[in-house]
Amino acid sequence: QVQLVESGGGLAQPGGSLRLSCVASGTIFGTVTMGWYRQAPGKQRELVAIITGSGRTTYNDSVKGRFTISGDYAKYTAYLQMTSLKPEDTAVYYCNFQRTIPPPPRDYWGQGTQVTVSS
């Protein structure tokens, strides 16, 4: 059974930085895309950033230029470096590993880590 464990959340001031980490236990066989999602109170979960095994990245427009996703596929570890944090970045952040090949796609989720941006 694969489990994802996140760390690095907490309280930051506006303009500050935090770095999230996500480590997978076990092995996921196939092609995997790593990603981070977030869910603020009263809102739907949204994509923050994803990275493929080839290093291609996709970001939510609201975090472009401020957040950087990276991943170590040999260690099944994903990172999210967050800078210039804003109060609207406050949310629970979830790590996601999605196996895309072989089909059908399968999602693995972490338990979530709280990020609060406040002065």
Which labels suit this protein?
four-stranded antiparallel beta sheet, 0% helix, 119 residues, globular, seven-stranded mixed beta sheet, mainly beta
What can you tell me about this protein's structure?
By secondary structure, the protein is an all-beta fold. The chain has strands at 3-7, 10-12, 18-25, 31-39, 46-51, 57-59, 67-72, 77-82, 91-101, 106-109, 113-117. The strands form two sheets. Strands 2, 4, 5, 6, 9, 10 and 11 form a seven-stranded mixed sheet that branches. A hairpin with a 5-residue loop joins strand 5 (46-51) and strand 6 (57-59). The protein is globular and about 45 Å long. 31% of the residues are buried. The mean pLDDT is 95.
Sequence stretches where pLDDT stays below 50 over 5 or more residues: none
State the helical fraction.
Answer: under 10%
Averaged pLDDT: 95
Number of strands: 11
Please give the count of helices: 0
The amount of beta strand, in percent, is over 45%
- Main sheet, how many strands, which sense, barrel? 7 strands, mixed
Spell out the helices and strands N to C.
EEEEEEEEEEE
Write a brief caption for the model.
The protein is mainly β and 119 residues long.
Produce the secondary structure layout.
Blueprint (H helix, E strand, L loop, with lengths): L2 E5 L2 E3 L5 E8 L5 E9 L6 E6 L5 E3 L7 E6 L4 E6 L8 E11 L4 E4 L3 E5 L2
Parallel strand pairs: 2-11
Antiparallel strand pairs: 1-3, 3-8, 4-5, 4-9, 5-6, 7-8, 9-10, 9-11
